[in-house]
Amino acid sequence: MNSVTSQITKVLHTSIRKVTQIENINPELEKPADSDHGDYSSNCAMVLFKQLPTELKDRFRNPRQLAEEIVSELHQQISESIVKEVSVAGPGFINFRLSDAALLSYLQQVVGQDWSALKVTSPEESTAIVEYSSPNIAKPFTVGHLRSTIIGDAVANLLQAAGWQVFRDNHLGDWGTQFGKQIYAYLNIPLDPSGQRSNEDILNSSSAPVKELVQLYVEFHKQAETHPEIEEEARSWFKRLEDGDQEARRIWQKCVDWSLKEFQRIYQRLGVHFTENDGRGYGESFFEDKMAPVIAELKEKKLLQESEGAQLVFLEEEHLPPLMVIKKDGATLYATRDLATDKFRKENVSRYGKHPVVINEVGAEQSEYFQQLFAVEYKLGWYKPGQRVHVKHGLYRFQDRKMSTRKGNTIWLEDVLDEAVKRADGSEEIGIGALKWNDLKRSAHLDIIFNWDEILAMDGNSGPYMQYAYARCLSIFRKAEQGVEQAVAQSFPAAANPERQLLRKLTQYPEVIQRAAQEYAPHHICTYLFSLAQEFNSFYHQAPILKAESEPLRQLRLQLTQAVGNTIQHGLQILGIQTLDRM
Ligand code: ARG
Q: Starting from the edge strand earliest in sequence, which strands make up the sheet with 388-393, in order?
């Protein structure tokens, strides 16, 4: 279904073409704050008049006259079921007033939880693989991974709400030379110096095994400073792992399982799940044996060049540094596995269709890398521009210090989650919801200065504020002695002006979803929901709901309250934030 805006824009376009014979115009619609100026308004006549050839300028004389002509054409074109009135105002504004029936029919839909107006596309037309979270095995789940998890999940939910078919993948960092070190350390460095408990014992029973694995890794590097020969042993362990040596595989698999157990707990708390590879996601290791064909294809398409023994794809035309796919010692890289991943995705037509959009939610620090990766994939002809998307997030800054896990000052993610819940008086829904809203309320690429007071503020642009706005809608119902009628009236009762205004705001929700989906930008939902909650707040103070002057007005206000509550809940659900019936 088309949104009201797109329907109006379309007829406006046709009318302008008929009146002026001008083709390439893009009329824009505004939503005037004051509904006296209509529900939508366009300044296209004024913009257009300036560009008219002289003979047309002479014919129309002024922008207002041009607007009048467009409007009389619009009257022929536009459906009365949508627009009640089109008029010219001032120097040539064209104002549209929506029909009451169109507004009320939207209200009816939302009261009945019918969200079909949000679907701009169908699953057959649009498929997306959204890849997010992607933490590294045997390393801490960082706040960067938290951001990726929250934002990526919201993008996936958003596309689904807009009608896409969505696959959720987790590109776990479960391969690389570091596993050689990990295996060496696991076998040679005791976690319990007294030697009473084996490393395996300790890791099996640990509630946070990643902490122990990280400890082994740190210990390895400490020892390597004085005993550099263990680096060589680590390399040979990685070689054994690559060659499929059983012992190496067994220990690697254990590291994966221990880490996943811990990550799974985080996903559970966040209410996040993946759909690929039985819900685990396709980690880097899955592509171990799928890189050779990529190299072969790159060679065949003459995209590989040797430089100092390494194999690279040069990207001079794209003004990007070359992308290395094979190191001079013959080893593959992160990029080689990413290429294999995206080849696998595009070839898996029976699952992902012919033209999936592949979205990677990864920190902005990898921006240039993803530009290189996409450029290579376009050169290979695997994807077309627009089909590869990097949704990037900025950093969390804790009191001005860049969060870093490299240099020991690790911030453990579960500690952050626990702290949020503690500060929300033990409520998991409020604490986690607050963190999520804080992550999603501004454009993802921006950095966030982490501030608990802002995150949990009851009276600002926060998760708890939105949850409270929702709970208050429900509390109004609880107080209404007679319930709300599910059937919405066909016309507005007399004096229903603030009601019409609020409903106008509600009808913008599908457009917000469409824009957010188009831009892969869930923060538009936050901006909208917050302003909806504020508008409902002033409505509530201005128009008594339970003590309305008449029964039809009382019903309408209750229905609007329900529609506001349903919309907030629906939007929060997309953002992955739970609602509470009481707060
Ligand atoms: N594991 C990587 C990291 O922690 C992120 C992976 C992102 N996804 C990808 N396809 N490269 O930095």
A: 165-169, 127-131, 357-363, 388-393
In 19-125, the DSSP E strands lie at 40-42, 83-89, 93-98
CA of 232 to the centre of ligand 1 (A): 27
| Residue of 404 and 424 predicted with greater confidence | 424
Structural domains of the chain, ranges and CATH numbers in brackets: 4-98 (3.30.1360.70), 456-574 (1.10.730.10)
Enter the tokens of residue 234.
């680590």
Question: Residue whose CA is closest, atom 1 of ligand 1?
Answer: 173
Q: Are 71 and 87 in contact (CB under 8 A)?
A: yes
Q: What DSSP designation does 93 have?
A: E
Residue nearest to atom 4 of ligand 1 (CA): 135
Query: For a pocket test of ligand 1, which of 337, 359, 366 has the largest count of ligand atoms closer than 8 A to its C-beta?
Result: 366
Positive or negative CA dihedral for 539, 543, 547, 548? negative
Residue closest via CA to ligand 1's atom 3 equals 135
Closest residue by Cα to atom 6, ligand 1, is 134
Sequence-ordered list of residues with C-beta below 8 angstroms from that of 200, at least 6 positions apart, any chain: 254
Lowest-confidence segment of 195-199, 391-395, 401-405, 449-453 by average pLDDT: 401-405
Per-residue pLDDT of 251-277, as tens digits, reads 999 999 999 999 999 999 999 999 999
Q: How far is the CA of 500 from the centre of ligand 1 (A)?
A: 48
Per-residue pLDDT averaged across 149-164, rounded?
98
Confidence grade of residue 33 (pLDDT, cut at 50, 70, 90): confident
Confidence grade of residue 400 (pLDDT, cut at 50, 70, 90) = very low
- The whole-angstrom distance between residue 156's C-alpha and the CA centroid of its chain comes to 6
State which of 151, 336, 359, 362 you would mutate to test the pocket of ligand 1, scoring each by most atoms of that ligand within 8 A of its C-beta: 362
Q: For a substitution probing ligand 1, which of 171, 276, 286 has the most ligand atoms within 8 Å of its CB?
A: 171
Q: What is the pTM of this model?
A: 0.93
Euclidean distance between CA atoms 244 and 288, whole angstroms: 11
- Closest atom of ligand 1 to 142 CA is 4
Residues with CB under 6 A from ligand 1: 131, 134, 136, 171, 173, 338, 360, 362
Contact 227, 176 (CB under 8 A): no
Strand partners, 315: 320
For residue 264, what are the contacts with CB-CB under 8 A and spacing of at least 6?
none
Helical H segments across 388-489, by residue range: 413-423, 428-440, 452-456, 463-479
Please state the rounded mean pLDDT for residues 508-522: 96
Q: From the CA of 172, give the closest atom in ligand 1.
A: 1
Alpha helices (H) along 301-440 = 334-347, 349-352, 367-379, 413-423, 428-440
Three-point CA angle 393, 507, 571, nearest 5°: 35
Most informative mutation of 129, 132, 134, 342 for ligand 1 (most atoms within 8 A of CB): 134
In contact, 135 and 152? CB cutoff 8 Å:
no
pLDDT number for residue 399? 65
The Å distance, Cα 401 to ligand 1 centre, comes to 23
CA of 362, closest atom in ligand 1: 7
